[in-house]
Amino acid sequence: MSKKRKLKNESYNDKELKEFCIRHGKEIFGFDVRLNYEDPEYGIDLVAVHDPTIGIELERAGSIYSFWDDHEGYQYKMDYDFKHINMEIDRKGHFFQEYHLKYPEELPAEWNPMVYNPSYNKNMFFRISFHFHQGILVPNDVIRNPEKTLLCWKKVKNNFSNREEHWASWKKEDTITFNYINGKMVRETDDPSTHLPSISDEKLKFLKKEKIRIKAEAKKKENEEKLKRATEVYKNSKKHDK
Question: Which terminus of the chain, N or C, has less C-beta within 10 A?
Fold first, then answer.
């Protein structure tokens, strides 16, 4: 599993996302999944219960309802003239046969060993809309196919951190769409019953407000946790000074 991205403080939004995907793992991935507790700080988000070398990297997107019918044009972020799904480039280490343990710019620069990644040809990427109405799965063979992976070096703001990042993208036809219908994640096909129902403007406005509320609450909880940890560190330092 890639060790390039360290999750120093897992956000509430990430925790909720992982729990949702664990509940619906068999419906989405075809097998049960669990947290990657072997490598919770650096590793991929989830792994298969029957084979921990199969990993799933998760991302909760800012899209309100459907990626493909996003009223705010989420899928057109990269200025492509076709619908697509995106992944931040810093996740790419999960899909390389070998990768550097740390980013080259991280200190100390002398310690940047190359690590073999036994899961590079198994790992998948799953991106889900903010309220979990729709998820998009990008299979491993698609991610590692240079003819299907579009690299966009234009800087685009991330929905949660507002950091500017580079992205990889895939066309809709190269991905698998799942919709949350009647309490289950259903794979979308030509059958209309597998499609997300249309949404009213009133409902869309409500979901937008809920997104703002949820993010604000999550940020508040994260700040409280940071303050708690900082207080504990300060108290411990005072104990050592005595």
Answer: C
- Residue closest to 16 by CA, chosen among 160, 172, 188: 160
- Domain locations in the chain? 12-199, 200-242
| Residue 118 falls in which region: left (phi positive, over 0), alpha (psi -120 to 50) or beta | alpha
Question: How many angstroms separate the Cα of 224 from the Cα of each of 228, 233, 234, 237?
Answer: 6, 14, 15, 20
Q: What is the pLDDT of residues 19-50, one digit of tens each?
A: 999 999 999 999 999 999 877 666 789 999 99
What number is the average pLDDT over the span 198-219? 91
Q: Which two tokens stand for residue 92?
A: 């790419």
pLDDT value of position 8: 39
- Scored b (16 or more CB within 10 A) or e, 151-167 reads ebeeebeebbeeeeeeb
Q: Model-level pTM?
A: 0.81
CA-to-CA distance for 195 and 179, rounded, in angstroms? 7
